[in-house]
Amino acid sequence: MKSIKIFLASSEELKEDRDKFRLFISVENDRLSKKNIYLEVIDWEYGFSAVLPKGTQEAYNEQVRESDIVVCLFYTKAGPYTQQEFDTALEHFLQTGKPLIYTYFKKLQPDDTETKSLKAFKKRLFHDLKHFYDKYDNIHDLQNQFRHQLDLMGDKGFIQFQQDKKLTVQDEINQYIKKYRLKKIRQFAGTLILIAATVFVTIWLVGYLQAKEPFNMKVRIENKTPNPELPEPVARLLLTYDPKTEPKDSVRDEVIFESIPGQFRGDSLRLQFLADGFVAIDTIIIGSEKLAVLPVRRNNDLSVLTGFVSAGGSHPLAGVKVSADCCTSYTDSLGQFKLDIPFQHQRIQQRLSLFKDGYKKIDITTPVIPGEPVRQTLFRN
Predict the structure, then answer these.
(1) Residue 278 and residue 85: Cα distance in Å, rounded?
(2) Res. 164: pLDDT tops 70
(3) Per-residue pLDDT tens digits for 57-80
């Protein structure tokens, strides 16, 4: 004899209908026994009530998985345990093709109120699973409807009927899962978009506020051609952000340009550097609170020393030996000389020695002034 397990699920408010449904199954067994079919009703009220390792409800869920048919009855509410048993049956059906799931909703009386949980569950069945659930007026109506389903099973043969039902509902479940996943993806995407929009607005707002806030800018002069015998630059700096030019004088190391309007943050600013003995600079820097380092180099103004030696009056004296610490030169027929001074020997003033046979040797200290030759007269012994 083929045994068919029926799990009966409902809330406590339908206890009377459950009891009468169980009696109805007993009567049906007398009729179906001729077809070698026995209906075994599993009801949570008659389950094992001792403490179990995974909890009592999980034990009921396991019975749902082992059943061939699950019948869910609803009245004014859809209790969480009944819904959990329904979901367990649905998940197992998707994986194995059983159990068959029937949902019956008892029609409300005039004084009855449908709860939010029941409305939500009905909406889920109809809109998500595309399942046209059944309604019944009373226990006799329920019995007649389910007897008709039993007859259908008997006519088709329960196994074949189960496979047909699986193919039909399988597609519905796949559509439900696909729609559920798509809904979750859309919710997740919406959350990401919201987060991204919030971050974008926050960054934009911070940038906007920063753009309105004046800022200070520090500029440091860095001498790339240091010489211990020569002074460091004493510079004049000019920072231009249209239409204003802000000067800073006597800058020896670094200086701060204060209260630059915020709209120039990140813009190109013009910076000019002027200092005696150094190459002038006219460059572009980016406006920000970060330190701007300006590399500077000495010019060649002190690298050449020229002069004229005479023998009294304006008569040029040729062949005069002119010596400095680093180098030596001789006057030409016009009495002119030129000393090329290496960088490490460059000074603001140079010590010169002038000598020619028949003339008195002299030592002088002379400033090195670009474009101005040294003039010196030698006298005979």
Answers:
(1) 89
(2) no
(3) 788 889 999 999 999 999 999 989
Q: What is the 3-state secondary structure (H, E, C) of the chain?
A: CEEEEEEEECCHHHHHHHHHHHHHHHHHHHHHHHHCEEEEEEEHHHCCCCCCCCCHHHHHHHHHHHCCEEEEEECCCCCHHHHHHHHHHHHHHHHHCCCEEEEEEECCCCCCCCCHHHHHHHHHHHHHCCCCCEEECCHHHHHHHHHHHHHHHHHHCHHHHHHHHHHHHHHHHHHHHHHHHHHHHHHHHHHHHHHHHHHHHHHHHHHHHHHHCCEEEEEEEEECCCCCCCCCCCEEEEEEECCEEEEEEEECCEEEEEEECHHHCCCEEEEEEECCCECCEEEEEECCCCCEEEEECECCCCCEEEEEEECCCCCECCCCEEECCCCEEECCCCCEEEEECCHHHCCCEEEEEEECCCECCEEEEEECCCCCCEEEECCEC
Identify whether the C-beta of residue 104 lies closer than 8 Å to the C-beta of residue 74.
yes
Candidates 377, 364, 359, 374; CA nearest to 312 is: 377
Residue 250 has what pLDDT? 96
Q: Which residue has the higher pLDDT, 157 or 358?
A: 358
Mean pLDDT of 20-45: 85
What are residue 305's phi and psi, to 5 degrees? Answer: -125, 120
**Residue 267 pLDDT exceeds 60:** yes
Q: Strand order of the sheet with strand 69-74?
A: 37-43, 2-9, 69-74, 100-106, 134-136
**What was the pLDDT predicted at 161?**
45
Check whether 153 has a pLDDT greater than 80. no
State the Cα–Cα distance between residues 240 and 255, nearest whole angstrom.
15
